[in-house]
## 1
Amino acid sequence: MSLLLKEIDGILAREIPLAAPYERKDPSGLLRMVFLLPFGHAYSLMCNGPMSLYDLINRSPDIPAVAERALQYDCLIREGNRLTTPDAEPFRSIESPLPVNDADVVGVSVVNSGDLHSVLRTVCCASSISPVFLGAPPTGCRAYTRW
């Protein structure tokens, strides 16, 4: 068993659902959305926006999508500002063995703008993602930037 899979199994074993569990959707034919949380598991639970969307998407049978979470796992190898997965395995979400870069939509949330480097480091770990960042500059108009 890989280090990444062991960590994911540990995360799932420690999680305590606060609401009744919902029936898991069959992901075939549905939009796959991965929320990329630039923190370890404990801190990722404070990302109320993505976690609320994650719950809403998965709990609502009429939304044609499944949501997953990918985060900065403790087992990731840190080399300066770069993160890589152990054993060169694909960076994956907690809920699916599929690589994050195969997702239809990857969403990120930054709680603190001073932590933008963590988002970029995590996006680079899922290296072949070509994300479109949506943001609101101080003027209030929407900026679309392709990285």
## 2
Amino acid sequence: MTLVLDWRSTRPIPAFASPEPLTAGEQIVTRQHYETLQEVFDDAYCGLAAQGFVKSTQKLFAIGSDEYLHASCAYRGVDGRRCAIGHCIPDDLYTGKMEGASVGTSASGFIEAFEVFARLFGLISINDIRRLQDMHDGASSPGSMKDRLADFAQEHGLTIPSIEGAA
């Protein structure tokens, strides 16, 4: 399938789709469940490509102060960016409580995130989903992220989606 980068969105859309007009920063996410790792990879890769393979982060501050600690990877980050798995989470299922909950985390504080991940990814190996998340989180640059995603695709026998308008 060929995907087209839509200038009105940070999310690529299938070339045959005819989306409703979007406002800046609005996302097109239609899947409520994934059947294959290839589907997850396609959405993650295309979403990351649309944002130039720039990492999605949030600034973390010390509790009760304005002291900036560091930037942390985020499902929904600054400037409308999303991480690899963040591109797979529809807006109606996302909640800020998910931030900090890594895929596969089952701690009681992350029940809401765990339920969303279980619903979205079903029988797909959670270890594969976590590794895909790590391709984003562990990247040191946009080029590094793209290379890591290519390695992930090769390791799992996946096809990198063809994207029109991508550099």
